[in-house]
Input
Amino acid sequence: MDNKKNRIYKTIMLVVLTAFVTFMITAFSMYSYIEKSTKDSSSLDVVNVSSNSSLQKYLKSIKSTIEKYYLWKDDIDEEKLEDGAIKGYVEALGDEYTEYIPPEEMKEYTEDITGNFVGIGIYMISDEDLGKIIVYYPIPESPAKKAGIKSGDVIKSVDGVEYTSSDFDTIADHIKGEEGTTVNIVIDRNGEELSFDIVREKINTNPISIKLLDNEIGYLNLPSFDEDTASDFKDKVEELKSQGAKSLIIDLRNNGGGIVDEATNIADFMLDKGDTIISTVDNKDEKQVTYSEDDPIITMPVVVLVNENSASSSEILACSLQENERAKIVGEKTYGKGIIQTFLTLTDGSGLKITTEEYYTPKGNKIHEVGVKPDEEVELPESIKNIYSVKEEEDTQLKKAIEMLK
Output
């Protein structure tokens, strides 16, 4: 829904993303493509092309020809042309998961990978008919939510500066800031003016949600594997246990992946010491095996929910629990992304996300373009139009998981 009348954006301290209604699908695409291995802090030197390189000679010829004949040669952005040449070179590999990121895009890109932003944690709407900027909703557990910001609140000012819908593209720059600093937000709520002093924090855009179901079953929904997801998972399990949970349902449906280490750490919480979590093979056919390093701290019965949008790290967690006979898998066959990308920082500040390894299940089975087959294949009713929003009473997959844990 991207028009002049009513523009909706994702603004998480704050990155603006058009077409908010497609956010969940966009998030899946991004995280099914992005994986970080333990190598992700590596630095890659920029390699200079030798003077006798045919590629260098060809580009030099193209460059001189453009300078000689191009009508608007005074408007040429040399840096932009160089970035475009590098992007084209990388894209020609034909690997949709390998990508070059220019220096100016790196900060936002790394924030997307980790799933964390610094700010107050709100989604906002620009209502051009009313000339107002409105809070669409605060992210659960965010500083804005804890402070009392609500859906429908009209933002009047930020740190004393008033804003209207015409300022939407700049208000994000004024709300975001350094972690630990305070921003003052004045809102209008049904004619009442309220002021909030909110401390900026690192925002997890994909928090784990939990609830206690009947029959002492704890339910956890993991939307992605972001930075600190494993630690958050452990805390959420403890919270469910304190509420009386005796078994767990881990919902990985529509979870497109994320940081590999977060998934393997969660597996480690539930597997016996020495169990194989995954194995990987690189372009030299060198194999590395990731084992569970500690005794399990979560010993309750577990059922995992998956669907066709469960990819990458989701598949790592699901297959490691399934093949070690630690959990049953319910739902539909997973996406089938069994390759890992390593994110490298280049010396000029740019980045290269490059496919480096293929991973296999604990029993050595291939995942890429194959997927993980559930123990119990259950489809959702045909009447469900949106698999990203399924009512509990219509959720046949969840019902099957509950039935198995009763």
Summary: The chain is about 25% helix and 30% strand. The CA atoms of residues 287 and 326 lie 24 Å apart. Confidence is low (pLDDT under 50) at residues 1-51.
